[in-house]
Amino acid sequence: MLPPVEEPNAGFILQLFVVPALIVLVIVAVWLMFNWLVYRTAMRPEDLIQGLTQGPSVARWQRASELADMLRNERFAEFKRDPKAAAQLGRILDREIEGAGKGDGMAEGDVTLRYFLARALGEFETNEGIDVLLKAARTARDPAEQFVRHGALEAIAVRAHNLRELEPPRDLSHPELEPTLFELASDDDPLIRSKTAYAIGRIGTPAAIERLEVMADDPHADTRYNAAIALAHHGNARAVDTLAEMLDLEEPASVREETNLQDQSMKRAVIFSNALDGVEELAAEQPDADFSPIIESLEAVAAADDEALARARIPSRLAEEGQRVLAELKQSE
Predict the structure, then answer these.
(1) How far is Cα 110 from Cα 300, in angstroms, rounded to an integer?
(2) Cα dist from 202 to 9, 153, 162, whole Å
(3) Domain that includes residue 284, residue range
(4) Is pLDDT above 70 for 105?
(5) Which H helix or E strand runs over 108?
(6) Looking at the 3D structure of the chain, how many domains does it have?
(7) Does residue 83 sit in the same domain as residue 162?
(8) Cβ proximity of 297 and 247 under 8 Å
(9) Where are the alpha helices (DSSP H) in 166-256?
């Protein structure tokens, strides 16, 4: 026979719930204390920059990666505005570029080091070091250096954005900035052109806008899409036709380069979402522009059933967002 059921007493509840809870709290407290100690003793950006001048390439690219991550934190805003620190890091990257041109081939660790040095240099909020980023972006002695060139162009775009976010806003400035980017806008590598379009969009000068108008017709989909989004951000109606293409239900160019089905779906959703944002920005700046190509694309999306949307890799939530944008465009006609 089973023993009689009794109500749990205070001691039983204490053992079953309170004691384990106290153990968990102690563990959490120890973990927080450990993280606090790590934070208090963590390296400063200056320490990481000093460590980049010596040691094996593996250790140095890891330091460069840590530095790039560290400088994304607003705690180091003052350091990111230090022209001497930016110039020092630029000299390190410049030495690595020059040194990599000697000997046979290029070690993977050295390429990775230069990539993260460029990304870290892009986080600064000063014009110092931009000359080295431009040098890294146009240095193409070996196919492996494409990775560094991509990182340098991304860094230029981030630097331009950071300066524009200052109060008062500042422009990224260097005599070779526009000539270099305009040259790279015609590079043989489509990914270089794509990243260049994004960087030119961040520059946003009248000459940059003119170049983006040309790039909106680039044969490479990502390049013309980046150009169109930038044009829309700057209120230029030249973006309309390309934005309509991005929103086209049957648009295949955006996923052609992706082999993984999941990557294809993610990329298609990002492009569709960015296009909707671009349309809204453009409509706010140029309400009298001819949006008929975009309206036609969005009407096809609105009329599509779930199967057609799935085939086009357009999530239902984005299709609904497209209907909202469509209604706003028609209302303003």
Answers:
(1) 50
(2) 68, 11, 10
(3) 218-333
(4) no
(5) helix 108-122
(6) 2
(7) yes
(8) yes
(9) 177-184, 190-203, 206-215, 221-233, 240-247
